[in-house]
Design a protein that fits this description.
heterodimer; A: mainly alpha; 1 helix; B: alpha/beta; Rossmann fold; six-stranded mixed beta sheet; two-stranded antiparallel sheet; 27 helices; elongated
Chain lengths: ~45, ~625
């Protein structure tokens, strides 16, 4: 594996990790439903 | 104030469209959305500022309400915060009551209700510039004496009167603290007023108005004159259609030059990288993955900005509320509540805030019906998909005597198809699973205003930034992964097909192809739809990468549209357009439906019925177009 391939592997690995992290955060969202008052509006998780 | 004592909390309360969010932005330096119609804010927002005395103050921006007798979920948020009924939150330490100086009759009713709570309060007499223009003489001193609270004139959108308001907040908090308010109240006593009390309230409002306001002998007529034309049942509708039509023509014609510039920039980048770097995986990742993929999405930035420019100007001018009024009869005909217009309109930007805006609808079945059809309104993420296919398959001709561009006309038709199918779905739902009596629309029409250039530019900046941020993060990461899946494993020795045919992505695409072959989709489209669930425009990026890897690499430097026009048949292209009108290809939308309705059933039902509609429409389009073109 040469330097170019290592760079590519690192970029692909980071991109995949970023997507997994995003997916995890999306699943872990815990905003209150609208009927109990909605979110605070600060974190953006409510949309 | 020591650090362990929580900062004092000040709540901004007022009627819808009185300028609470503009004031919140002016106090905190935030840039939350403001517009000239009711119902923009549907949830509580929090921010902080430092008062002139150096106190850190927490400020709450609450949804607009006409009374503490909340009827809709957004109004209930305001009532619960003010009364201390929100879980884990005390009563605010002070209230800044934001009143539209041009419409004090409604504002004073709420002000008197709030006064009865006995909370320290300040009246921010907002939009004083508009009141002066209308010749309305409002006497802050008389108002202050009558209401028993300090009154500060403001023009929040221009940050006028903010310093005096900050000074007054300081004084009010100091007085409140000295009177023992440092010990927080956990709940405010309040009971729903009787009809007798409401009549007394109305009489009191009229008495105060007679003392504090001097209306001109000749009332301000500009809004009334404009409304005579713009709200005319026939002329008004024609004007609305013309405005929307011009918007879509503008999306194509105004954005053309900057799009060509971005395209040329991307091509130059590709050329430079190809010439400068040795052939290999890294060069392919940058050119075929990042530039072809992310670039295919970024190129649509000018169109997104043109679309939002129109929307922002129409919102700021006060015309959007008129559009809701004009379409109330049409919406009522299919069983939708008139208040559904603003959520549906917001869905043209993105279904997520649109679905949240449905909180302003009181009746639950009306709210569900609105939420279920919100994804049928064409969101801005569909724009790149539509534009790409239109540019590939619709000739750049003028029609109707050279007045109308054919591409803009097709785009207009696609938007219209989304709207009409949404109305049709609502019609069926309201007569079957979501039966309910129709409630009349009561809405306050705001005065016309010239859009504030700063507000328009900041809105465009935020939209452009959000689009580029998404392209630079999620879409970039997705394109890198798609490139990897489309490049590995390498083809076996002696392989004759393009390398991508032997890759993981190729295998996934070919596995999905039989499912989608009846509607004319090839394996490349099938593959693009999978990551497209994260965001619709990602499908365009994936197509860019797949076709870049399928070819020698030169094709993308021409344009993706050019490649598609040679790779797809017309029935396939039309079928994909039909698919995108209906398909629920957005996980964020399904997630927000789940949260807003607190139910797993409705997002599942939405996914099933929209996918069925999309498949059916694409199937019919593909077959009919195939028959008509002799395919």
């Amino acid at each position: 594996m040469n330097g170019q391939d290592l760079t590519v592997a690192a970029i692909v690995g980071l991109a995949a990790a970023w997507l997994v992290f995003k997916l995890y955060r999306a699943i872990r969202k815990r905003c209150r439903p609208a009927d109990s008052g909605g979110g605070c509006g600060n974190c953006g998780k409510c949309g | 104030m020591s650090d362990d004592i929580p900062p004092p909390r000040v709540a901004l309360v007022g009627n819808p469209n009185s300028g609470k969010t503009a004031l919140f932005n002016a106090l905190t330096g935030s840039r939350h959305k403001v517009a000239n119609y009711a119902g923009v804010t549907v949830e509580k927002k929090e921010g902080n500022f430092h008062s002139p005395a150096g106190t850190r103050v927490k400020v709450l921006d609450l949804p607009g309400t006409y009374s503490l007798r909340a009827r809709s979920p957004d109004e209930a948020v305001t009532r619960d915060v003010v009364l201390g009924r929100m879980d884990g939150e005390d009563v605010p330490d002070a209230i800044v009551f934001v009143a539209d100086a041009t419409n004090l009759r409604l504002a004073l009713r709420l002000a008197l209700e709030l006064k009865q709570l006995g909370l320290p309060a300040i009246l921010a007499l907002n939009m004083m510039d508009a009141a002066e223009k209308q010749g309305l003489g409002v006497d802050p001193a008389v108002l202050s004496a009558e209401l028993g609270m300090p009154v500060v004139p403001t023009v929040a959108i221009k940050k006028g009167g903010i310093q005096p308001l900050l000074d007054q907040i300081d004084r009010t908090l100091q007085v409140a603290e000295s009177e023992g308010w440092a010990v927080r109240r956990t709940e405010c006593g309040w009971s729903e007023p009787s009809s007798h009390q409401l009549r007394d309230l109305t009489r009191e409002v009229e008495r105060i108005l007679a003392r504090a306001i001097h209306a001109p002998a000749q009332p301000h007529m500009a809004t009334r004159r404009l409304d005579k034309v713009l709200l005319h049942p026939f002329a008004g509708l024609m004007i609305l259609l013309t405005v929307l039509f011009l918007m879509f023509q503008g999306v194509f014609s105004w954005a053309q030059a900057p799009m060509e510039l971005i395209d040329a920039g991307l091509a130059a980048c590709t050329d430079w990288i190809t010439a400068s770097f040795p052939d290999g995986a890294l060069r392919s990742l940058v050119t075929d993955g990042v530039i072809a993929g992310v670039g295919s999405v970024v190129i649509f930035l000018p169109q997104i900005l043109v679309l939002f420019f129109f929307i922002q100007v129409l919102e700021d001018s006060g015309y959007m509320a008129r559009a809701a009024f004009l379409l109330d009869k049409l919406m009522g005909g299919v069983g939708l509540h008139g208040r559904a217009f603003i959520p549906l309109l917001s869905s043209f930007a993105c279904a997520v805030p649109g679905i949240m805006a449905a909180r302003t609808i009181e009746n639950r079945t009306d709210r569900i019906a609105t939420i279920m059809i919100a994804p049928l309104m064409t969101c801005s993420a569909r724009l790149p998909v539509y534009t790409l296919i239109i540019a590939a398959f619709v000739p750049d001709h003028d029609v109707l005597g050279g007045w109308v561009g054919l591409r803009g006309l097709v785009m207009f038709t696609l938007y219209a198809a989304g709207i009409l199918s949404g109305l049709l779905v609502a019609f069926v739902m309201k007569r079957t699973v979501l039966k309910g009596a129709r409630e009349p629309l009561l809405m306050q029409l705001p005065a016309y205003r010239l859009p504030h250039p700063r507000n328009v530019l900041l809105g465009l900046y935020d939209k452009g930034k959000a689009f580029l941020m998404r392209a630079g993060t999620t879409i970039f990461a997705l394109m890198v992964v798609v490139w990897f899946l489309a490049s590995f494993p390498a083809p076996p020795d002696g392989a004759t097909d393009p390398a991508i045919r032997y890759s993981i992505a190729g295998a996934i695409g070919h596995a999905l192809e039989p499912l989608l072959a009846p509607i004319g989709f090839n394996w490349q489209i099938a593959l693009a739809l999978v990551p497209g669930m994260a965001a619709r425009e990602v499908a365009v990026g994936v197509l860019g990468t797949i076709y870049a890897l399928s070819d020698s690499g030169d094709s993308l430097r021409g344009s993706l549209a050019n490649v598609l026009s040679h790779s797809w048949s017309l029935p396939t292209a039309l079928s994909l357009l039909a698919w995108y009108v209906f398909a629920p290809q957005c996980l964020a939308t399904l997630g927000v439906v789940r949260r807003e309705l607190n139910s797993r059933f409705w997002p599942a039902a939405m996914f099933v019925f929209l996918t069925t509609l999309a498949y059916g429409a694409a199937f019919a389009t593909y077959r009919i177009a195939g028959w008509m073109t002799g395919g």
